[in-house]
Specification:
Keywords: Antiviral defense, ATP-binding, Helicase, Hydrolase, Metal-binding, Nuclease, Nucleotide-binding. In the central section; belongs to the CRISPR-associated helicase Cas3 family. By secondary structure, this protein is α/β, with parallel strands linked by helices. Helices cover 48% and strands 11% of the residues. Helix 4 packs antiparallel against helix 14 and helix 37 runs antiparallel to helix 38.
């Protein structure tokens, strides 16, 4: 096939085919700017440049060819080479033609204020519209061209016409906030029924017209119905149409921005050869333990794991795991799907960085890395580790989550003038919007949204998936009802987009065992195939002993408090330091609060009883975690009362654990916070039952299987032996069983058909990792700028950029604290202000969103909680999904979070 670059070079040029082309404008300059108006021809040339660069630097030409080849492989069609070439032309021409509709006189008069034209009555809605008109011109041009080809059979012509009908959707919707099912959208298009009234615009471009194309418009539904999509074509059609929309909209946006702001992006944030070498070298040299692992991996060193428990032996086992991972990744580096199962405390994050360096070293086409996490705390922790271990700068790593705010790339060459600073802001806005960073740490919600979204702005990033490494951490935390969808997308994207996925966890569900309608069965390479030897090694298996003495006993909160006190006192007496760090986890915050009341002022040191729940604000959470990680506090008697927010992603080392039974893998995650570094005698985690886990997990297949199919003895055995396959095999079997029922809503009968018919909206809606709606609560407290970190140094809560932004908006720290009332006023006024320039407003909104996240927590959205929270809120200051908790003194405590006693039956919505 011809390269996309050559197709762009030989594309139709407006200045050559459009009569009086210089009269047609595409954009007007911003007010008070001295730049000239932009003609349609000039705009399209800029779009071509941005498209060429997007495709070239992201390595997309090969990806596009692969998608087209997968679509065309059809024995009954024949002439495959001609079909491939023409589909690629169709693909490129959506971008070439996308603004051809700007010849609409009303667009020129009303939008461009172009005196060379007069307004006319039109069937186009809105009257100044251009997208549908461009789609009409594209379709007529290609339907005529397809039908004039003598070397094609009628069947081949129908198939190419079908492809044109699909791809024209990108032109039709390139200014819409969401993309919808192409053929349904086409049914509503004006030109399907109003061909004759639009023919005059074809004359402007000298496009040949016959009754053939009109006949195709009249009968397009029959044409569509005559096409049978085969299994091997389903995903390639989905991916090709999404990729087309992504490239069109992103190239158009970048080209428009370049003209409007007179700024050209200097790079697209990819891993170049210099950065690749730096990462590979840093992975081998930054830490001595990694340097030694690399050295031994290249030798004949035979791995033998010591069985005696000690901190030194634990480090030896960690090193041996690194050696095994390095050897296996080097042997299997050409593969695309990997599993990394390692015990809690085994150093998975470090191992993942070694894997990244090896894959970058062996695969020169890989040019970006995505780290995917279920919790923002994991993003923060990994960010620090990855900067140090891989010798990266802040300009090379992007953080995408609700608390990240606006990220700036520091430019030492920036002029001190205000114009220079604002120029940098504009570039930073584009870098944030398109995530022009070589390494990106993001939440699982955002990542899977990129894979399956129908929203335009998120779809900008779709083309950046190609040629990437994706590390998905804590796989067990994803709802089982979506494991089949995850596997479907992971397998297909890996194969066609040349992506390498590493799925990792201490309790890893082997989702490749699922039976799905995949063209090729997924094959995962296990990077630690002997991980079970580590799990049963005393340094991991005996790190924590589960105790089931209280599992089946009906306990009151007061009884539980007595047990916790008794066990904590016993541990303190045995401890050399006399201290004890005890953690107790409940499902609902209400029980945590009741427990705190029951144990108050008994045994534990004053100011050393902490509450950590979903209603605790970020600064307080950091204060607690940093206190627990500070070695100077190990002599104290500390109690951490928490909900399940502590399970994964909180790097703390406790001495004793108590946990309300919930999911088996959830029980294991809590145990991962106890005796984390094997520096103590075997520690215990006691399981009890106060809250009913079924309230939260009633639809979770893990809970259902555990309740119905796993005995108490088997539950204990799984936790003791770490044989989580026993649980997951049952869960996977239930998913397969459900997918086997034709009358049920499931992947095979419901979700897969969405993909088959390109129903983008339901593809997106049908795969929501978090299905509960949340309500965000803003608490207008005064929050500290910094808190103490684990070494008694300053841990910044507000970044320098955030403080600078607040200063620009006349908010200054008082007693080293930021007033939430003033912060909310900035946000409220900024959103309401219609006069601020778009980019300035968007930058400000992004920065202030990061700031207000520090004052915000979330609860499950129900009508009841909304009513009850309104009692303490100010309706006049509410906005979107935020409640402003104006009377927080009555229902909120900085150290304890939301006060449940102020609400009726709060246990089901406050975690």
């Amino acid at each position: 096939m011809k390269t996309l670059k050559s197709l762009i070079q030989n594309a139709l040029r407006v200045k050559e085919i459009l009569k009086n082309s210089g009269s047609y404008l595409a954009h007007l300059p911003p007010p008070n700017d001295n730049i000239t108006v932009e003609t349609l021809s000039e705009h399209l040339e800029l779009v071509f440049e941005c498209l060429d660069r997007n495709v070239d630097e992201n390595g997309l030409n090969f990806i596009i060819d692969r998608l087209i080849e997968s679509i065309v492989v059809n024995e009954s069609l024949g002439n495959e080479e001609i079909l491939r070439e023409y589909i690629k032309q169709l693909f490129v021409d959506t971008i070439i033609f996308h603004d051809f509709g700007k010849v609409n006189e009303n667009f020129q008069t009303e939008r461009m204020k172009n005196n060379l034209f007069r307004s006319v009555s039109t069937i186009i809605k809105p009257v100044y519209g251009h997208s549908e008109l461009g789609a009409f011109i594209y379709l007529v041009y290609h339907l005529e061209a397809i039908n004039s080809k003598c070397n094609l059979s009628d069947q081949q012509k129908v198939f190419l016409s079908f492809m044109a009908f699909l791809l024209v959707n990108s032109i039709n919707l390139h200014h819409n906030p969401k993309i919808v099912e192409p053929l349904k959208r086409l049914e509503r298009s004006i030109f399907i029924k109003e061909y004759e009234k639009l023919k005059k615009y074809l004359d402007l471009y000298s496009i040949r017209q016959t009754n053939l194309s009109k006949g195709y418009f009249d009968n397009f539904a029959e044409i569509i119905d005559s096409i049978e999509i085969e299994k091997h074509q389903v995903f390639p059609l989905y991916a090709l149409t999404r990729l087309n929309f992504s490239l069109l909209t992103s190239s158009d946006y970048l080209a428009t921005s370049e003209y409007m702001n007179q700024l050209k992006l200097d790079n697209l944030g990819l891993i170049n050869e210099s950065l690749r070498k730096k990462i590979v070298i840093a992975a081998k040299t930054t830490h001595n333990y990694n340097a030694k692992a690399h050295q031994l991996a290249c030798s004949n060193f035979e791995i033998t794991n010591p069985i005696e428990r000690s901190g030194d032996n634990l480090n030896i086992i960690r090193q041996n795991m690194a050696i095994e991972v390095l050897r296996n990744i080097r042997k299997q580096s050409k593969n695309r799907l990997f599993y990394l199962e390692a015990p809690t405390g085994g150093g998975k994050t470090n191992l993942s960085m070694l894997i990244i360096a090896e894959l970058l070293n062996s695969s020169p086409e890989i040019n970006k890395v995505f780290y995917v996490f279920p919790f923002t705390t994991l993003i923060t922790q990994t960010h620090k580790a990855i900067l140090k271990t891989l010798d990266l700068t802040e300009n090379e790593v992007s953080l995408i989550h609700s608390k990240a705010g606006f990220q700036t790339k520091k430019n030492v060459a920036t002029e001190e003038s205000e114009d220079g600073k604002y120029g940098d802001e504009k570039l930073n806005y584009l870098n944030n919007l398109f995530v022009h960073y070589p390494i990106c740490l993001l939440t699982h919600i955002r990542f899977f949204d990129i894979l399956k979204t129908n929203e335009k702005e998120t779809n900008y990033l779709f083309h950046r998936l190609a040629n990437s490494i994706v590390i998905i951490d804590e796989l067990q935390s994803y709802p089982p009802q979506h494991w089949d969808k995850m596997l479907y997308f992971i397998q297909n994207f890996a194969e066609i987009f040349n992506m390498k996925f590493v799925l990792m966890s201490a309790t890893l569900p082997r989702i490749d065992k699922l039976n799905l309608p995949l063209v090729n069965k997924p094959t995962f390479t296990d990077l630690l195939p002997n991980a079970n030897q580590c799990f049963i090694n005393a340094n991991f298996a005996d790190r924590v002993n589960f105790c089931f003495d209280y599992r089946d006993i009906k306990l009151e909160i007061s009884d539980l408090a007595d047990i916790v006190l008794e066990k904590s006192e016993e541990y303190s007496l045995r401890s050399e330091s006399g201290g004890v760090f005890t953690i107790i986890e409940f499902i609902f915050k209400k029980s945590a609060t009741e427990f705190e009341e029951a144990i108050k002022y008994r045994f534990f040191d004053e100011n050393c009883i902490f509450v950590l729940s979903g209603t605790i604000l970020e600064p307080r959470r950091r204060e607690i975690i940093n206190f627990l990680k500070n070695e100077n506090n190990r002599t104290k008697k500390v109690l951490l009362i928490t909900t399940q927010v502590v399970e994964a992603g909180v790097d703390i080392d406790m001495d004793l654990g108590f946990k309300n039974l919930s999911l088996i893998d959830s029980d294991e995650q809590l145990a991962g916070r106890v005796n984390r570094n094997v520096k103590k005698e075997p520690c215990k985690v006691y399981l009890f039952q106060i809250n009913n886990a079924g309230i939260i997990y009633k639809n979770d297949q893990r809970y259902i299987v555990t309740r119905d199919n796993i005995s108490t003895e088997e539950h204990e055995e799984i936790l003791k032996t770490k044989n989580f396959d026993k649980l997951y095999d049952l869960v996977l079997g239930e998913i397969d069983k459900k997918n086997g029922f034709k009358e049920m809503q499931n992947f095979n009968n419901t979700y897969y058909p969405y993909i088959q018919r390109l129903d983008y909206e339901n593809i997106h809606k049908g795969f929501q990792i978090i299905e509960n709606q949340n309500l965000s609560i803003f608490v207008p407290l005064c929050l500290p700028i910094v808190v103490l970190d684990e070494k008694d140094n300053h841990d910044r809560i507000f970044s320098e950029d955030e403080l600078f932004f607040l200063k620009q908006n006349n908010v200054l720290p008082i007693d080293r604290k930021i007033d939430g009332v003033s912060v909310w006023d900035i946000y409220f006024q900024m959103i309401k202000n219609k006069e601020v320039e778009f980019i300035k407003k968007e930058i400000g909104r992004k920065i202030i969103t990061g700031i207000i996240s520090k004052f915000t927590f979330s609860v499950f959205l129900t009508d009841k909680i909304k009513r009850e929270l309104q009692t303490f809120s100010n309706p006049e200051k509410q906005f979107e999904d935020y409640y402003y908790l104006e009377h927080h003194q009555s229902c909120y405590d900085y150290k304890k979070g939301l006060i449940e006693s102020k609400f009726d039956a709060s246990e089901n919505f406050i975690l």
